[in-house]
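Input/output pair, single chain:
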Amino acid sequence: MHRLIVVGGGAGGLELATQLGDRFGAKRTHQQMNITLLDRNPTHVWKPLLHEVAAGSMDPHSHQLDYAAQAYLHGFRFKQGALSGIDRTRKIIFVDPVHDNDGLELWPARIFQYDTLVIAVGSTTHFFGVAGAEEHALALDTVEQAECFRRRLITAAMGAGSTAAAERPRKINIAIVGGGATGVELAAKLRSTADVLSVYGLQHLHPYEDIGITLIESGPRVLPALSERVSKAVAQILVQRSVNIMSGEHVVEVTAKSLRTRSGKAVSADIAVWAAGIKAPAVLSKLDGLNVSVAGQLFVRQTLQTDGDDNIFALGDCACCPISDTGRTVPPRAQAAHQQASFLVKAISRRLSGRDILGFQYRDLGSFVSLGHDSAVGSGLASGSLFIGGLLARVMYKSLYRMHVAALHGWPRMLLNTLSHRLRRTTAPHVKLH
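Output:
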């Protein structure tokens, strides 16, 4: 039976394993494929939601998905572990041992055989070699990192809000490095969180005067990947919410309490977040001679097959995929991973039946940025020329996550899932305090 392994349970990898399992897996009367999903973690949370986890506005436990349960329901297998290498001649992958929080070994180092391998390991934060950045700035790659930020924020807020104004310690300073979507959304969400914290037993905490938020962008404007019109609209909203924007500033050093820019400016930072860029995981450069880009991504053709090995595919942030003959590559966005997962379901089906694989065609469905509970802005349609704001943009932004949930559970369960979260918010606090 054909053995297919998907490495990485992010948005694209999990959707691919689920849909292939539904079509060819163990739940089918005539199983055609053994499908295995490999991930270093036991649970999945949609990565674009991590800024909400960090701000405390989303409980990750209510949105996480257990890989093992998903595997059982959809006819594939789940194995926990991190990819460490590949032997392309023998068609095997090497997996590191798994340890619990106390250092006890849960699973030893293992090897798995494949006929088709799909690599969907996503991306990690790129610190660009800035002195002190990895040691003192928090990234938002995992739920654990987002929860660490939230706990530090709550602790600092309680310290600042526990005394009267005359006795209040210095302001809490939060510095966010990187004015892309993650940095902008986190800044906006933190301001909303500050408003809520000021009424949850922290009456002495002033949401604007006691919590300072600075957003540092090396380029001339925030959201450089989007249109100038969207960028200006977002900047105006952030300034109205007392977010200090520093454009054209390159951070060259991060310490425990401050950041220093190339121009010599010093920024106080009780908590620093690094959201300035992404890179592919380092393991990709060690995969038995597979070619990688400068950013460490695997070079793939428009079929999403890697250069030099038709049995290995890559999708999502870890793949450098060309867009036709434009000279551009598919951007690292959740919608791209979703489209590539849907494409690979059909491509692998054609491959099993001996037919040629067609080329992947990326469709830009627009980009949207959340600016808090009730607002979002963005540009829609392939041309990106249609500016959308307010409630409509918020609905379209939320629909991206709902499409992901529907791909994993189907539309009826997605609707029930949405309703359950809405009902839960009527009794749960709007900020996770513990």
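The mean pLDDT is 89. The domain at 133-275 is CATH 3.50.50.60 (FAD/NAD(P)-binding domain).
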